[in-house]
Amino acid sequence: MSMAALDPARAFPQAAAVGANGRTTRSGQRVLITAGLVLTALFLVAPVAVIFAQAFSRGFAAYRASIVQPETLHAIWLTAVTALIAVPINMVFGVAAAWAIAKFRFPGKKTLISLIEIPFSISPIVAGVAYLLVYGSQGLFGEWLADHDIRIMFTPAAIVLVMLFVTSPFVVRELLPLMQAQGSEQEEAAATLGATGFQIFRRVTLPNIRWALLYGTVLCSARAIGEFGAVSVVSGRIRGETNTLPLQIELLYNDYNAAGAFAAASTLTVIALITLLIKAIIERRIGGAG
Amino acid sequence: MSIEIRNIFKQFGTTPVLKGVDLSIADGELIALLGASGSGKTTLLRILAGLDWPQSGEVFVDDTDWLRLNPQERQIGFVFQHYALFPHMSVFENVAFGLSIRPRETRPAKADIARRVVELLDLVQMGAYGSRYPAQLSGGQRQRVALARALAIQPKMLLLDEPFGALDARIRKDLRRWLRGLHERLGMTTIFVTHDQEEAFELADRVVVMGEGVIEQIGTPDDIYEQPASPFVARFLGGVNELPAELHAGHVHVAGADTSRVGRLALGDGQAMLFVRPHEIDLVPDATGTAVIKDIVPSGALIRYEVALPQTDKVIEVELAREAARDRTLTRGDAVRVNILRGRVFHPPKRQPLASASGRAGQAARTH
Ligand SMILES: Nc1ncnc2c1ncn2[C@@H]1O[C@H](COP(=O)(O)OP(=O)(O)O)[C@@H](O)[C@H]1O
Ligand SMILES: [Mg+2]
């Protein structure tokens, strides 16, 4: 230990990395890598392991019972349905916005680019409160909505709305740099060959962006499914009705139903791990395709 | 198709890029747009293709108002400078694209499309590469695939943007000859953009020399070489000596050089510039001569001399054929007489009020 403290290469791994001496460089690297692994184990692997350990602590039968409990099943179903509505809408929005920004020049383009980023910089809970203030019964459109017998707040519709808001930047952000780098020459070539706007999009643009689109969609889905703050405000948290999976987990946990909470959490974790896997595969494809 | 371009103005933002372009092209002509980078060649080509629109001006193709048509309706073959092949399609699919996207009523049968694609790939000598992807091809091969793709829709007009720009010298020469042959065979009106005068002169029926957004001269390669219309064109063609001269009674005089072989000119008296190419000058060994050889650079069939003229101390470039050089046995430091055999006289640009100064500098007269 004292040796390590005395060796400047160990104390300052960055300095060692640029040092000419290969041996100190390598030991510097080893320290960094070890530190990285320890941190990963502490902050990433351990919590995930604990989730599964807790979920299965009373055996598989108990785990199954926790999952098939009606409220939890409903939460899983609701989460899936709302995400299945929100994600495709944001795919379309993302492609349209990236296409417009990358391929055309129009006034207000810079503003649009910064507007798209807003959901990333606003806390989801603020977004939830904002939607409440606009569409809630006391809100801006509250009276008009009530007159027309439309209820948005505390229904799945509200969940879809905030999911849309929170996850809207993902697809655009993946597509825009790619489409800007590709320029419009291929599209122009297709046009001179007689392709209509839709044919150009379908046969030239879309194939060129498919992996980035899939990547953005995966990130978007993961975020939509896991969203807590905004959904918790606008859903009304009605048991067995408007609770999505993350809300259900919190509810079970607050009920001192640790096994149930962890079982539900394990499903969310599995989804996250699958997302990670798909993401890694796509990243390899993008890297390989150039 | 004959093309009639009238008074085209185009600006991007506040930057004018084409400042009144007029050009008539006859059916079946092979035209080179020759100009320095940034002179607006690509922009003019894109306007013809329907990829850009001018602020004002007209284009008629066989009496059709061309600017009313969108690119899909124009049926032109456009080959982009960087080819713009579809990377996710094979060579075959790239070439088939234009036919396979046609609406059902006009789309040829699959087998017919395949036959046509094979024909085209053979035509561009890429028959063996149909299943490759663009990323697996060399620059010259991509170029030819792009051409085959453009030809697939049987365009009436072929537009090529710097078709050989990104290729190395040897392939350029081969492709150039090959394209000339292809044009003779297919006979469609063809416009290609280049910044390489050799390319333009070797390939084109007529060459259009472009300056900053204006056409400086239109003519056959011979016309342009023999009679550059302006100092701009003469300079653009490169390697020219610009000598201050004095016009007097139809004769041109250059200090320190013999201009008696330069014929009489129908021009008034006054100051002028004489533009002389290096090979239009002869050097005669003469101990009493006032010009001095500063340097000798042999370059293949030609020997290049740098010669200092007396009084003005101006250094001119002279090229003699190796044979002629052998007869004259000149060495560095020798005194010589400078014989100007031919040249073009341009009036010095008159001082003009502000804006119009960038136009044609003066009228030209060829001399013999
Ligand atoms: N889309 C564009 N936006 C702004 N300026 C452009 C655009 N396209 C071309 N220009 C400008 O117009 C001028 C002529 O361009 P271009 O037609 O490409 O010239 P060339 O092909 O002769 O090199 C250049 O100064 C270029 O910067
Ligand atoms: Mg260009």
Compose a concise summary of this entry:
By secondary structure, chain A is mostly helical.
Please give the number of β-strands of chain B.
20
Q: What structural category arises from helix and sheet content of chain A? A: mainly alpha
Distance between the termini of chain A: 46 Å
SS content category of chain B:
alpha+beta
Under CATH, the topology of the largest domain in chain B can be stated as Rossmann fold
Name the helicity range of chain A.
over 70%
End-to-end distance of chain B: 39 Å
Describe what this molecule looks like in 3D:
The complex is a heterodimer of chains A (290) and B (368). Chain A has helices spanning 2-6, 8-11, 13-18, 22-55, 59-67, 70-103, 109-121, 124-135, 142-147, 156-167, 169-182, 185-192, 197-226, 229-234, 245-254, 258-289. With 290 residues, chain A is mainly alpha-helical. Chain A has two domains: 14-54; 58-289, MetI-like fold (Orthogonal Bundle). In chain A, helix 10 packs across helix 13 and helix 12 packs antiparallel against helix 13. With 368 residues, chain B is of the alpha+beta class. Chain B folds into two domains: 3-226, 3-Layer(aba) Sandwich (Rossmann fold); 241-366, OB fold (Dihydrolipoamide Acetyltransferase, E2P), CATH 2.40.50. Chain B has helices at 41-49, 71-74, 91-100, 110-123, 139-151, 169-186, 197-203, 221-226, 231-237, 322-328, and strands spanning 3-12, 15-25, 30-35, 56-61, 64-65, 76-79, 157-161, 189-194, 206-210, 215-219, 241-248, 251-253, 270-276, 281-285, 291-299, 302-308, 315-321, 335-340, 344-346, 364-366. In chain B, the strands form four sheets. Chain B has a six-stranded mixed sheet, sandwiched between helices. A five-stranded antiparallel sheet of chain B has the order 12-11-13-19-20, with no helix packed on it. Classes of the chains: A mainly alpha (290), B alpha+beta (368). The complex binds adenosine-5'-diphosphate and magnesium ion. Adenosine-5'-diphosphate (ADP) is lined by residues 12, 17, 35, 37-43 of chain B. Chain A: It holds the Pfam family BPD_transp_1. Chain A: One of its GO terms (cellular component) is plasma membrane. Chain A: Residues 76-283 form the ABC transmembrane type-1 domain. Chain A: InterPro entries: CysW_permease (IPR011866), MetI-like (IPR000515), MetI-like_sf (IPR035906), Sulph_transpt2 (IPR005667). Chain A: It is found in: Cell membrane.
